[in-house]
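sorry for the late reply, my laptop died twice this morning and i had to redo everyting from scratch. anyway the thing you sent over, i finally got around to it. pasting the sequence first so we're on the same page, its 222 residues, then the predicted structure underneath. double check i copied it right bc i was rushing
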Amino acid sequence: MVSLEQLRVDGWALVSASVAPSALQELRDTIFAAGSAGTRCLLDLPEVRSVAVILKQELVAAELLPAASVAVQAIAFDKTPDTNWKVAWHQDLMFPFARPVTTQGYDLPSLKDGVDFARPPLPVLEEMLAVRLHLDDCGATNGPLRICPGTHTRGLIPSRECGPRAAEDGEIACLAKEGEALLMRPLLLHASSQARAPSHRRVLHFVYHSGTPLPEEWHRRI
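ok and here's the structure:
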C-alpha cells in the first residue's frame, strides 16, 4: 500500500483509482479536443468535477491528502499520431488564479486562454499533489511520463539546470494501466518523449492543494 512517507521521500506513487469504467469512457468521449495535445481549466465540467471529488475522497481515506484539500486544476492531455509532442525536463510551477496576483511571493504572472496564472511561493508548491488519471493504457512505446525520484525536495530548480539534474539523478518511466493514477509532487522533475508507436495516451491531470488558506484565490477550488 502506498504511504505518505513514500510520497514524501520519492515524490511519486502509482495507485489504482476507484473511478468506474463508465466514467472513464465519458471522460474519453467529452473532454478531448481533436487535434489538440491538451486542454486547460476543465474543473467547470460536471464530469470532471465528479471525478475530482471521487479521487479526493479516495486519497483522503488513504491518508495521502488532508481532508481540507481542494482540486485547483484539471488538464486533459492526449498523445496521438497528430499530436505526438515531447516535453523537456521541468517542474510544474504555474497555476491558475481567480484574478491577477498582487501578493509578494506570487511571481511570473501571465494570462493563458483568458485565465490568470502565476507561480505560488515554494511553501504553497510543496503543499500540492498532482494526480494523473490514465484513461488509456500507457506503455513504453507511447511516450510515458519520465520522472526523477526525490528531486521534489530540491526547491525551485532553474530551467537550465533541470536536464543536467535529471541526468545525474536517473529516471523512471511511469507505465500505467487504464484506470490507474500517478500521484506526483509538482516539484518533481519530469519529462515526456515523443511516442515511438503513437496511439491515444489520454490523461486527466488534476492538481490538489492542501486547503491551507492563501492570500490569493484559486481560479477554481473543488
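Helices lie at 4-10, 21-30, 46-61, 122-125, 159-169.
thats about all i looked at so far, will dig more tmrw
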